[in-house]
Amino acid sequence: MKALKCRECGREYPLAATHVCEFDFGPLEVVYDYDRIKSSLSRESIVKRSKNMWRYRELLPVASEPTVGCQVGFTPLIKADRLAKKLGIGELWIKNDTVNYPTLSFKDRVVSVALSRARELGFTTVACASTGNLANSVAANAASAGLTAYVFIPADLEQGKVVNSLVYGARVIGIKGHYDEVNRLCAEIAGKYGWAFVNVNMRPYYAEGSKSMGFEIMEQLGWRIPQHSVVCMASGSLLTKIHKSYQEFSKLGLVPSSSYKIHGAQATGCSPITTAQKAGLDFFKPVKPNTIAKSLAIGTPADGFYALKVMKETGGAGEDVTDDEIREGIKLLAECEGIFAETAGGVTVGVAKKLIASGKIPSEDSAVLCVTGNGLKTLDAVLGHVGHTREIRPSLREFEALLDSDTAMAAA
Amino acid sequence: MSKKIRIPTPLRKLTQDEEVVEVQADTVGGAIAEMQARFPGVQERLLDEAGNIRRFVNVYVNEEDIRFLDNLRTPLKDGDEVSIIPAIAGG
């Protein structure tokens, strides 16, 4: 790390807990010394290291060895042949962050960076504004690191996500409002108390953690950039960081330079970015979210502008899906590949289906779907839509009768 | 009575560390102009060359984003509170 730099005007700032430029409110981003990194980071040095996200640590913003989340990442990249056949594409891969350690979403990547850096900067209390997954990860990782955690969530969040924050002893504050309102309050709180707010004053470090998902995809594909990547968007940060990861590996000579497209996925009930993309605009209009994909329900996406830019530059598309299509996406992934994703994963699969059907992802190409969180956290969203248990008495005769009716149904 | 503007951390160097500034103006745009007169430099931080709110600045009147209201023409009445908030990532 060399400095923080404003993405808008290029002014540089010291590597402190600060996130916006004083001159134009532009987001600050970490600057690296790529020449130096190039001398120490090679495919050979990476493969010798432990299988977690820190095997790319030169490209992650910590000053010394990480102290939080040392085992996060290196989730499976699955060749999804059954789903590929169903969607009508030659080659399809699932980057499966539903089993990321320890809280079953890609957020463990960003949090391990944010909390490791927060410790380096001397913080003892950490906090976040969250749609759920981030709260879970901050709560768990703070507990294991002995840090105090305050997490702020919309009060109407799925029960699974609430319990998954409370159990670690975090102070969970439910805000009566949607995520954008939680965020607004947290921006004001972050300015007032000396806490490390992972997605506010720690954001330049935090956001970089997402790159590890892209690094892993390239390594697991055999050191190449996928032709197509489909990424779900809430604030749009993950999509921009996947793009950055591809660029960094290419710049460092770790993968051959090749053309690729990054496609953005949203829920129709909260689609400010894809709506702008479809209209050919480079700015978005904020919306009030109304979707079952609560982890993506950000109506004022902070990185929406940059996400639009990435889609435009790479030739990627933006697409969105309804609540029913989200549930169908969840079922498709589960039934074809045995992976139970949360609603955001349903969004990604549903959008991929549409993009393949419309030819925006050509059927002879290869695509990676970034599946970011676990379905056990959003059971409410699919309950009643995935069939039901059939109850019988503990009697062989009743079971045989049930089986006969199944056979008859299959024959009909 | 007047209207309260909550000043975000990145602007407090200009307001001599004042966290809340009171103004008399009756629109959001007017309030920014009034602050500019008292704390030179505030306006260019908040507005771009075309005079619109910058891309990464969110302004709220009584907790409602002014982009859902009437942007810079959003009226202010006595007792209103205006918050200026940088865009935040997350999820």
Number of helices of chain A: 16
What is the element string of chain A, with H for helices and E for strands? Answer: EEEHHEHEHEHEHEHEHHEHEHHEHHEHH
Estimated structural class of chain A:
alpha/beta
Low-confidence stretches of chain A: none
CATH homologous superfamily (4th level) name of chain B: Beta-grasp domain
Strand order of the largest sheet of chain A: 4-5-13-10-11-12
How many strands, which pairing sense, and closed or not: the largest β-sheet of chain B? 5 strands, mixed
Helix content of chain A: 40-55%
Mean pLDDT level of chain A? 96
CATH architecture of the largest domain in chain A: 3-Layer(aba) Sandwich
What features would you describe in this structure?
The complex is a heterodimer of chains A (412) and B (91). Chain A has 412 residues and is of the alpha/beta class. Chain A has 2 domains: 77-103 and 210-382, Rossmann fold (3-Layer(aba) Sandwich), CATH 3.40.50.1100; 107-205, 3-Layer(aba) Sandwich (Rossmann fold), CATH 3.40.50.1100. Helix content of chain A is 41%, strand content 15%. Chain A has helices at 34-40, 43-47, 81-87, 107-120, 133-145, 159-166, 179-192, 203-208, 211-220, 237-251, 272-278, 304-314, 323-337, 343-357, 379-382, 396-411, and strands at residues 3-6, 12-13, 28-31, 77-79, 91-96, 125-129, 148-154, 171-175, 196-197, 228-232, 261-267, 318-321, 366-371. In chain A, the strands form 3 sheets. A 6-stranded mixed beta sheet of chain A has the order 4-5-13-10-11-12, sandwiched between helices. A 4-stranded parallel beta sheet of chain A has the order 8-7-6-9. Chain A has a 3-stranded antiparallel beta sheet with strand order 2-1-3. In chain A, helix 5 links the parallel strand 6 and strand 7 (148-154). In chain A, helix 3 (81-87) crosses helix 13 (323-337) and helix 10 (237-251) packs across helix 12. In chain A, 56% of the residues are buried. Chain B has 91 residues and is of the alpha+beta class. Chain B has a single domain (3-86), classed as Roll (Ubiquitin-like (UB roll)), CATH 3.10.20. A 5-stranded mixed beta sheet of chain B has the order 2-1-5-3-4, covered by helices on one side. In chain B, a hairpin with a 2-residue loop joins strand 3 (57-61) and strand 4. The longest helix of chain B has 11 residues, at 28-38. The model of chain B has no long low-confidence stretch (mean pLDDT 92). Classes of the chains: A alpha/beta (412), B alpha+beta (91).
